[in-house]
Structure formats: C-alpha cells, structure tokens
Amino acid sequence: MATSTDHPPSRGPATRPGTVATAAGDTDAPVIVFDEVDLAFDEKVILKGLSFTIRQGHTKIFLGASGAGKSTILKLILGLLKPDRGAIWVKGQRIDQMTEAEMMTVRGDLGMVFQEGALFDSLTVRENVGYKLYEETSQPLDEVHARVEEVLGFVGLSEHIDKAPSALSGGQRRRVAIARAMTAKPPILLYDEPTTGLDPITSVTIDAEIIKLRDLEGVSTIMVTHQLRDAFYVAEHTAIREGADIRLVAADDAKVAETEFIMLRDGDIAFEGDVHELRSSTDPYLKSFLS
Amino acid sequence: MISAWLKTALQEVQDYARLCIAVAKACVSRPFYVRDVIEQFDAIGIGSLTVVILTGMFTGAVLALQSGFTLDQFGARTAVGRLVSASMVKELGPVLTALMVTGRVGSGIAAELGSMMVTDQINALRALGTDPIRKLALPRVLAGTIMVPVLTIIANFVGMIGAWFITVWQLRVASSIYWNSVVDGLYMADVWMGLIKPFFLGFAIVSIGCHVGLRASGGTQGVGRATTNAVVAGSVAVLVVDFFITKILFSVLY
Q1: What distance in Å separates the CA atoms of residue B106 and residue B115, rounded to the nearest whole number?
Q2: Where in the sequence is the domain holding A149, given as residue range(s)?
Q3: I need a surface site. Which of A237, A239, B3, B100 has the fewest CB within 10 A?
Q4: Tens of pLDDT along B24-67?
C-alpha cells in the first residue's frame, strides 16, 4: 500500500523546510526520494522500509554485499520494477504508481549505465551512443551526429565511433555505455557496478568519467558498487576545467560532504553518512566490509 | 504439484495474451518504427525463401512420386496434378511452410530477444525511453503475419513445379494433362483456405517466439531453453491452429 502523500517528504539533515522535489534547477533540491519502500520476490525480502533522499548535483553511493538489493534500487528508480509498498519520487513526480507509458517521460531525466554496459550488439558505437536521439527524437541528423561525436570525445573514444561493441574491450564498452547514458543530457545518472570486473587502471578512467559528469555537467549521481576503492575515489576527487584541459584534484570538505554512502544489509540501511564517517565507523559489519 | 503446474501454465497464457494485446495496441498508435518493420520483412520473408523453396519443391516432387505409383494401380496416373494441387494448396503448403519458418524464424527470434533479455539490453531499451513491444515484437509479428502467406504461395507454386517435373519425366504424363489436372483439382474455397490459414500460422509462430524470448532468464542456459521452447511450442501451435482454423473454414467456406 503506497503512502497517500501528494508531495515527496523532505528528509535528512540538509533539508530546508518547505522544499518540494520539483525544482529542476533548484540547487540542493531533492531529485530522488524513497519513502518507506518495501520489495520482496516471493518469500525473499529485498528491501524493507527503505528511505533516502538524493539532492541535485550530489552523489549517493550504495554499498553492500551481492544480493543486498543495490541494483534493485536503480531498477525501482527507472520504473523497471514496482515496489510492493512505499513511494518513490523522481524530480517531484511520484513514479511508483505510473504506467509504463507514463514512465517513458520520467526516463527522459534519467541515464543508466548498466552492469557490463548492455550495449546493443546489432548497432555500431555511433548508433548505440546516439540511440535515444536517433530513435526517440526528431532532432536533425547533423545535430545528433555532432552530439554523438562530442560525447564520445568526452569519454575519449572518438576513434572507435564506427566499430561494433564486440570489437571493444570491457573498459571501452563501459565508457560507451556512459556516453550513451549522457547523450540526451539527463540531469540524473545511475551507475550499476560501473567498474566491476575491470583492471584498476581502467577503473580509474571510469571513475574519472563519473566525476567529470558530476562536477562539470552538474549531474546528480547514484552509483551502486562493491568496489570500495572506486567509491572512495569518486567521493574524494573533483574535476576542474583549466582552459581546454580537465584535471582531477582532491575534493575539499564541502565537496566531500556532497557524496553520501549508504550501506545496505538484509534490505535495510546499515549505514548512511559521508566518507569520513564511513572510514571512522566502528561497526563490526562495516569494518569487515572495509577491511 | 499439479496446482503449481496449473498456476505456471495460466500465468504463461495470461502473459502471452497480454503480449498479443500490447502488440495490437502498438499497431494502431505511435511511435511506429518503420525501419525495423522493413528489416524484419527482409529477415523473415527474404531470409526464409531458400528453405521454403527447397521444402516446397521436394514436397511436391515426393507427393507426385508417391501418389503416381498408387494412382497407377487404378489406372488414374493422369490425376496426379489434381491430388498434388489440392494437397499442397489446402494443407501441405501452409503447414510445411509454417513449420520451416518456426525452425528458422521462431528459434531465431527467441534466441535474439532472449539474449537481449539476459544481457539487460531490453532494460536498456526501456531506460532509453523505447517500448520493447513496439521496437522488437511488433515489427516481427507484422512481418511474420504477412510474409508467411507470401512464402506459402511460393511454396505451393514450386511444389507444383516439383510435382510437374516428376510427373513428366518419371511418370511419363504429358505436361498439358498435368497442368489441366492441377487446375481441375482446385476450387476457389480451397484457394481461400490455403490463403487464410497462413496468416494465423504466421502470427502464432512469431508471437510465440517473441513471448518466449522476452521471458528468458538465467543466462545463456535460459536463452537455450527459450530457443527450444519456441520451436517446440511453435511447431505444436502450427498443428493445433491449423486444425481449428481448418475446422472453422470448412463450416464457413464449404
């Protein structure tokens, strides 16, 4: 049974009174709100009473063991799954009761990088990256080509534009997936295990793309991972533009505070806080996870 | 045990009906992916041409061979054309074409959509704002429903050519007698039956392929299972649908 509220509840210490998650350009406004969300598959409880808020331009990193329900949260945000109970808000719209057709509009605000990339095998890199603009908009082809080349340049894969996804390495496929997710300039990007199975050097490249998108394009980021090294890297670095160059530097305290970690355990939140609180936690489960 | 099986079976039927309704709705609303429809007409229609021509040709030839020797015992060798045309147009053409398309197209669709399902490509489509039913199922169902009747007509024609070849060169019946016999053996009701049935068979084959593919789960093993199920369910459906449509058409046309 979903809650009957008409507006998303404001929660968390930084919430301003009266804030409603509708203002797309409102800095610090909540863009995604989960309110007491329950989900179970048959007898297996995946999420129980999960509540959290993600703010405009901020980052939320979900940690947890395999099967803890991390990826399920992303599917709930995209409307690929429906919760059994509770409410989910995306940019001020309650999505848990929407039909598939209504969700198509909401998905315009969301970009998703799937585990392993989920690139379309039958399309080239260009067609994959520009899929949404080619197929779902009436934008002139010249503009779409230009945008595709621009985002592929952003992730450093311009020379692979006419290749098939099968001709790319694992890391390149993930970067193409990131490029595809950002082509239509969504204000919220969801990453499902973006670095799992990649070597450390390639992982840092992917982390850098996530940071660049967040800090230079103002994208709100939700990242699901169990790669702690990458999670900390994303939380503790920021991207700055110096002329034509983009550099990654250590983030200041204010920037670090914009990234929150949530540790899931048995469908519930075992920890919620910033990187300093996570590192200094004395909880035995967290310590075993961090060690 | 039985109730669990019944529940699963009902769920399967319900999901299949939902898919058919969603395809019907997508047919009459926008967006419509014209390029995908054309691609599927090519893949299902042109792509199945070789197998359908070979099947039709050899079915007609063996039909002439078998019936020729049997009819010979009654001194009715000249009636081979009549038997071949009636059998091919009314029954063998539609059913064999549909079975060939099930093996080639039904399995291919289940494998392709199943792979997309287990590698999250279907979810990626939805995340990018595309309805997989419109983009993937509708073009295939349209192409299957329209191209199976076209392929059946081709199979019927080449079947009669195959039979003509055997009748003239082996049974030593004059070509003109064979073709006259072919025309004599056909009534308009037979032609209508041979034309109407493949629409239903084509729809059944492709919609089952899509349904099974879009329900695939469990990695590559699940894709293999989906492919097998598509061929088995598709082949059985061809024979079942053929029986019921024939029964209905008999009461309507004759």
Answers
A1: 14
A2: 30-285
A3: B3
A4: 999 998 889 999 999 999 999 999 999 999 999 999 999 999 99
CA distance B226 to chain A (A): 19
- Coil, helix or strand for A142? helix
**Helix (H) or strand (E) run with residue B68 in it:** helix B49-72
Per-residue pLDDT, averaged over A131-146, amounts to 91
**Residue for token pair 């909540």:** A30
- Give the CATH number, domain containing residue A199: 3.40.50.300
C-alpha dist (Å) from residue B16 to A50, A196, B23, B141, B211: 34, 36, 11, 13, 6
Q: Does the beta carbon of A180 lie under 8 angstroms from any beta carbon of chain B? A: yes
Q: What is the pLDDT of residue A154?
A: 83
CA distance A152 to chain B (A): 18
Task: Using CA coordinates, name the residue in chain B closest to A119.
Answer: B121
Q: Is residue A193 part of a domain?
A: yes
A–B: how many Cβ contacts below 8 A?
A: 54
- Is B120 in contact with A115 (Cβ distance < 8 A)? yes
DSSP state of A69: S
Q: Taking a C-beta distance cutoff of 8 angstroms, is the pair A99, A113 a contact?
A: no
Residue with the bigger pLDDT between B150 and A200: it is B150
Q: Give the global pTM.
A: 0.86
Q: B116 vs chain A: nearest CA distance in angstroms?
A: 8
Which ipTM did the prediction report? 0.84
Cβ-Cβ contacts under 8 Å for B14 (sequence gap 6 or more): none
Domain count along chain A: 1
Q: Do B126 and A107 touch (CB under 8 A)?
A: yes
B94-130: pLDDT as tens digits: 999 999 999 999 999 999 999 999 999 999 999 999 9
Query: Which residue from B119, B123, B128 is facing A131, i.e. has the nearest CB?
Result: B128
User: What does the block give as tokens for B115?
Assistant: 């792979």
What is the pLDDT averaged over residues B71-97? 92
Between CA B160 and CA B81 the distance in angstroms is 8
The span from the CA of A178 to the CA of A210, in Å, is 8
